[in-house]
C-alpha cells in the first residue's frame, strides 16, 4: 500500500536528519497558526482540520514568514473575543531546539525548563516540527542506557542473548586495554620485589589500598559524568569542584585508613604496618577523587565521551599509584628501620 502524499512528505522531511538529532526525533504533526490571524479564523480552521495532531491542545505561533514566536493553549480561544489577534494572547516559550542539535542536549534543556514539548526550528528560526514528551522520555532512557553500557566498556548493541563469539568480540577491546594497565600495576610489584620479601605482611593490604582508592574514584566519576550530562557543571567549575572533592576524599581516607589500621593491630601484624596502610589509604583515596573529578572533565574538553573512558583511566591510576604509594612507604620504612626485615607474622 502506498503512503498518502502528506505522510510521504513528512517522512522525507525526517529522513534528512540523523536519528540522534532534534530533526530526526521531531514530528511534523502539529498545529501552526499565524500571529496575525484572528481568533475566529483559527477556530474555523480547527473545525475543518479536526483533532488529528498529537498535541492539539497546544497551538504553535509563527509570524507570516514562519518564524517561531511562541505558543498558546487552545482553550484560550473559547474565552477571547473573535476579532482578537493571536499575537495578543500567545506567550513566549522557554526552550527550543535546532534541527541538528544532539538529542541529549534537547532532552536536558526540556528537563531543565520542565516543559512537555520542544519546538524545533531551523537556522532561520523557522518552525519545522516539535518533539513530544514521549520522545523526550525515550531519549533520556536511551542516553542513560548508553552511559551504563559505556561505563562498563560494553557496546550499546551488546545483548545478553547474542552469540558468545560476537559478545566476546564486542567486549574484548576494553578488556585488552585493562590488561595493559594491569601489567603496569604488576610491574610496580615486580620493582619492589625485595621490599615485599622483607616485609611480606604488606602484601595483604595491596588490594585493599587499590580497591578503596578505585571505589572512591568511581563514586566521584559517576557524580561528575552525570552532572556533565545534565549540564550541572562546566569546565569553569573544575577548581571549585576539585577542592571540594579533595576535602571529601581526605575525610574518607581518614575514616577508611583508621579502620584498616585498627584491623592490622587486631590481627597482630607488625606495628609498622598500621601507619603505612593508614597513609597509603589516605593518599590513594585522594588520588581516586582527583582522577575521578578531572578525567571526565578533560575528556569532555577534548570532545570525548567521559562515560566511556573514565573508568579505565581511574582503574589504571588507582591500582598503579596505590601499589606504588604503599610499597614506597614500606621501602622507606625498611631503610630507616632495617630490623623490620626480620619480623615474621601469622595472620590466623
TrEMBL record:
Recorded name of the encoding gene: mgtE
UniProt keyword Magnesium, yes or no: yes
Protein's name in the database: Magnesium transporter MgtE
Subcellular location: Cell membrane; Membrane
Primary location: membrane
UniProt function note: Acts as a magnesium transporter.
NCBIfam families, per the entry: mgtE
UniProt xrefs under InterPro entries: CBS_dom (IPR000644), CBS_dom_sf (IPR046342), MgtE_transporter (IPR006669), SLC41_membr_dom (IPR006667), SLC41_membr_dom_sf (IPR036739)
Family per record: Belongs to the SLC41A transporter family.
Keyword terms of this UniProt record: CBS domain, Cell membrane, Magnesium, Membrane, Metal-binding, Transmembrane, Transmembrane helix, Transport
CDD domains (alphabetical): CBS_pair_Mg_transporter
Species this chain originates from: candidate division WOR-3 bacterium
Matching PROSITE patterns: CBS (PS51371)
